[in-house]
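Reviewer 2 asked us to include a model.

Predict the structure of this chain.
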Amino acid sequence: MSEALPLPEPSPETAPHAAYRQLLVDIERFAAVLRQRFPTSITCRLGCTGCCQQHLTVLPIEAAALHEYVSRLDAPTRARLRQQAQAAQEQEAAPTPAAVPCPALVDGACAVYPARLVLCRTHGFPLLYLDEDDPTDGILDVCPLNFTDDADAITHWDVFDMTVVNTRLVAASLAFDPTGKRQFIADIILAATAAAASEPDGQA
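Predicted model (structure tokens):
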């Protein structure tokens, strides 16, 4: 019997993206399992934007994915996102800056949902973080809108281990861009829509 040929190794250029995409697939699969296991305890839904009321910075590999997605959106959506990104920058530069919501939030919905961040994909689910004061223990974090009556039902099988998730994310991002320089979402949107904004009508 002949031996199976080994699978080709991904190129250095594609390996980080493949690792990042696999991480997203794994997150979505586990999220689906949790939704089935806790159908009434996880209340995250369209229109619930409590976790979107902050302007986040993004690792390079997520910035690249977000940039590509925004650049492919239809012209009206790109124009709206660009306007909101500019407004976010102005708010943050004000003498008394106020809390700035995510500039990708449009009319109560995420305009970049398929390209949303790992943080956005996991928020609301039971998350396990390493306790810095006690490395042998962990800290369970759950959205206060979820598991309001049955938090005791959460077992160690029902949590996103964020040490593992973040390690995979950072590893993929550093392989993609060793500088590790983070970018604000508004800056990514402005860069992704710059070409369209330079058109004569500003809408192409």
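The mean pLDDT is 89. The beta strands are 57-58, 105-106, 109-110, 127-130, 138-141, 160-161, 183-184. We have added this to the supplementary material.
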